[in-house]
């Protein structure tokens, strides 16, 4: 199986899971079972070190990217984080530029947020946070979100509209966790193939450069 096929299988399975209307699934809207922590509209003064600042630039489709590395002063953290404190496992959602990138907060370290991100804290009694991540990444939900998006040049979505997006999920956390385990396993296999494919591309590029060097220096 090549990388393209592996990705297609993962995306297809993800879409299939959240397209089915299974018996025992609960219908709701996002706002019923998710709390929003929203620091949009606030921009902290950036510093060379301190508390890590996460912006939309760091949130990709399914993962959090380390770069760019930006910070705010540690002594300003308590006064800044008045709208809510994020916790490991919370889902990060970009509201514009780009719209609907989704990742999960993967650190226990203190972090601060700004610029086009809503942090989603699911009701732990109803909705598994990793299940929520996969749900938001799935094609059916992505399409639903984009239909409510606004903006001619840069598409975005208002928090008030995002809360009204319809979702469905198994009523028990156990069932949710079983699906999460299956999707995590499939995603891990896809990422391993991606890593192998990337190494092969790097080796091929190095070989090409070596052959060109030898050709131009008359060593072939």
Provide structural commentary:
The strands form 3 sheets. A 4-stranded antiparallel sheet has the order 2-9-6-7. Strands 3-5-4-8 form a 4-stranded mixed sheet, with no helix packed on it. A two-stranded antiparallel ribbon has the order 1-10. A hairpin with a 3-residue loop joins strand 6 and strand 7. Helix 1 (3-19) runs antiparallel to helix 7. The chain is an alpha+beta fold and 220 residues long. Helix content is 41%, strand content 20%. It contains 7 helices and 10 strands.
* Span between termini: 35 Å
Number of domains: 1
Please count the beta strands (DSSP E, at least 2 residues each): 10
Structural class of the secondary structure composition?
alpha+beta
User: Which percent range fits the helix content?
Assistant: 40-55%
Global Rg: 21 Å
Low-confidence stretches: none
CATH class: Alpha Beta
The amount of beta strand, in percent, is 15-25%
SSE string, helix = H, strand = E?
HEHEEEEHEEEEHHHEH
Q: Strand order across the biggest sheet? A: 2-9-6-7
Please tally the helical runs, counting DSSP H or I stretches of 4 or more residues.
7
Main beta-sheet annotation: 4 strands, antiparallel
Shape: globular
Average pLDDT: 87
| Known CATH architecture | Alpha-Beta Complex
Name the CATH homologous superfamily.
DNA methylase specificity domains
Q: According to CATH, what is the topology?
A: Adenine-n6-DNA-methyltransferase TaqI, Chain A, domain 2
């Amino acid at each position: 199986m090549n990388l393209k096929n592996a990705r297609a299988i993962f995306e297809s399975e993800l879409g299939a899971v959240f397209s089915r209307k299974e018996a025992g699934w609960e219908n709701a809207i996002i706002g019923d079972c998710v709390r929003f922590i929203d620091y949009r509209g606030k921009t902290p003064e950036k510093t060379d070190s301190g508390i890590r600042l996460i912006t939309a630039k760091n949130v990709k489709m399914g993962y959090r990217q380390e770069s760019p590395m930006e910070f705010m002063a540690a002594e300003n953290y308590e006064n800044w984080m008045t709208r809510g404190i994020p916790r490991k496992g919370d889902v990060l959602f970009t509201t514009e530029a780009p719209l609907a990138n989704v990742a999960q907060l993967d650190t226990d370290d203190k972090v601060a947020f700004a610029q086009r991100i809503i942090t989603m804290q699911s009701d732990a009694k109803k909705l598994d946070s990793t299940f929520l991540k996969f749900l938001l990444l799935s094609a059916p939900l992505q399409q639903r979100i984009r239909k409510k998006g606004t903006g001619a040049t840069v598409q975005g979505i208002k928090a008030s509209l995002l809360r009204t997006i319809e979702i469905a999920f198994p009523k028990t956390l156990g069932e949710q966790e079983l699906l999460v385990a299956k999707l995590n396993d499939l995603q891990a296999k896809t990422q391993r193939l991606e890593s192998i494919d990337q190494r092969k591309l790097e080796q091929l590029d190095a070989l090409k450069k070596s052959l060109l060097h030898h050709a131009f220096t008359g060593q072939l």
